[in-house]
Write a structure and sequence with these properties.
By secondary structure, this protein is mainly α. It has a domain at 8-256. It contains 17 helices and eight strands. A hairpin with a 3-residue loop joins β4 (144-146) and β5. The longest helix is centred in the middle third of the chain and has 34 residues, at 255-288. The chain crosses the membrane at residues 40-61. Keywords: Aminopeptidase, Hydrolase, Membrane, Protease, Transmembrane, Transmembrane helix. This is Aminopeptidase.
């Protein structure tokens, strides 16, 4: 799933004061950097942003080491393009990314800074691997709590072996566990003074629509970020991704080739989201009234989910867009195939944040149509919304959602107001 992009941004915490505390720490470390401790400072900031608890030295150092390796591997895109032996495909993708990066700031009112102006070849399958866990009878994610970062519903590792070891320890406690690869993550702009978040070989070869969408998604987190509300952050970023990519393709010289593929991918993604949404609702209903039949009913729900996915997958592969390239199409679905095969409570618990409020943010964007700079007005409206108390913020989002009450997120009641909810 392209949009399953876990980020260091999610680790800043759930408390209202977590960002201020984190920025205070960053400020102190920056002063030390100016006195000559740049490498150590970067390691410490990486650990703090990643939610590393100081007593957990092993986790602290793997996070700091991984971030430093990424910073050291990155070089300006212009340096890569100056290489005469650069593979033509990589050259064209880096040129595309550079153009999209400029478009993001000039046309979408996203930050104009150092991020995504450098490129790093990590030569591995993922930027990081995330671990999530949930009880066998709940979609509520297991939480990790840290002194600065607060409590978060996942833990990230720079090596697959470390992530799998953590997953095995959680599974031994009887939890549903999901370990999954993450192609990119954001540091919320805190590393722009060291070159920013780089383009990576884990995603730079994606199709045009998917690549530019990822850049718009991640940059939006540097524009507005609300500590402690993952659904707000990811839904806003996904809305920017979708609306921004559509705007990009309207002006792209290669849109004739790229737009149909992106539109087909969007349709497949919407169909998959509908499938996972209905499955999540069935699981939530089951867990709300547990009984001795729960394990068997849960197994049946998951079997039905996988059977419906197989039917959907066959439909996709028979479509003209994918039927023309069957081998490449099947390969492109491998990651999604694996997610479905391994899906459990942890998987579904982590998935919902990316689409909960996307329709609401799209409606908010539409309301800015008469503004001189609709994109700037949209980001300002989102920022204003992020400053509201939780109850008012949820009520405003619910009011922006169309459709019958039964189709609204669980935070909405029939009157479009807000009700309390647990961790997403």
């Amino acid at each position: 799933m392209v949009t399953m992009i876990a980020s260091v941004k999610k680790s800043i915490g759930s408390g209202e004061n977590s960002v201020n505390e984190a920025m205070s720490v960053v400020s102190r470390w920056r002063q030390r950097v100016r006195r000559g401790g740049q490498t150590l400072a970067a390691a410490a900031i990486a650990a703090l942003l990643g939610g590393c608890a100081l007593p957990d030295i092993g986790y602290y150092w793997q996070g700091a080491r991984g971030q430093l390796q990424m910073l050291h591997a990155a070089r300006p895109v212009s340096d890569w393009l100056d290489q005469p032996d650069l593979p033509p495909t990589l050259r064209s993708q880096l040129q595309l990314a550079r153009q999209a990066r400029d478009f993001a700031s000039q046309a979408l009112a996203l930050p104009d800074n150092a991020s995504y102006r450098r490129y790093a070849a990590l030569n591995r399958a993922a930027a990081v691997w995330n671990v999530t866990a949930a009880p066998p009878d709940s979609l509520e994610l297991h939480q990790w709590c840290f002194p600065v970062a607060g409590c978060v519903g996942y833990r990230g590792y720079f090596t697959l072996a470390d992530a799998q070891a953590q997953g095995q320890a959680l599974a031994a406690q009887g939890l549903d566990v999901h370990v999954y690869p993450v192609p990119a993550y954001s540091t919320l702009g805190y590393f722009n003074w060291l070159g920013g978040d780089p383009l990576l070989d884990t995603f730079v070869r994606w199709p045009e629509g998917e690549l530019v969408g990822l850049l718009f998604h991640e940059l939006s987190h540097q524009r507005v970020y609300l500590a402690g509300d993952m659904a707000f952050n990811e839904s806003y970023a996904t809305a920017v991704e979708q609306l921004g990519t559509a705007a990009w393709l309207r002006q792209s010289p290669t849109a004739a080739a790229a737009a149909p593929a992106w539109q087909a991918a969007q349709q497949r993604r919407a169909q998959f989201r509908a499938l996972t949404h209905s499955t999540r609702q069935a699981l939530e209903t089951l867990y709300a009234e547990p009984s001795e039949a729960l394990p068997g009913t849960k197994a049946q729900i998951m079997a039905d989910f996988r059977a419906r996915y197989q039917a959907l997958r066959a439909q996709w592969l028979a479509s003209p867009e994918l039927a023309a390239r069957p081998q490449a199409a099947a390969q492109s679905l491998q990651r999604l195939d694996r997610w479905v095969a391994e899906a459990n409570n942890a998987s579904f618990g982590a998935l919902s944040a990316y689409d909960t409020w996307v329709v609401a943010f799209a409606a908010l964007f539409a309301q800015q149509a008469g503004q001189a700079d609709a994109w700037a007005a949209f980001h300002q409206a989102v920022e204003k919304l992020s400053r509201q108390p939780r109850a008012q913020r949820l009520a405003a989002l619910c009011a922006l959602m169309p459709g019958p009450a039964a189709a609204l997120p669980r935070d909405c009641n029939e009157d479009g107001g807000a009700v309390s909810s647990g961790t997403r």
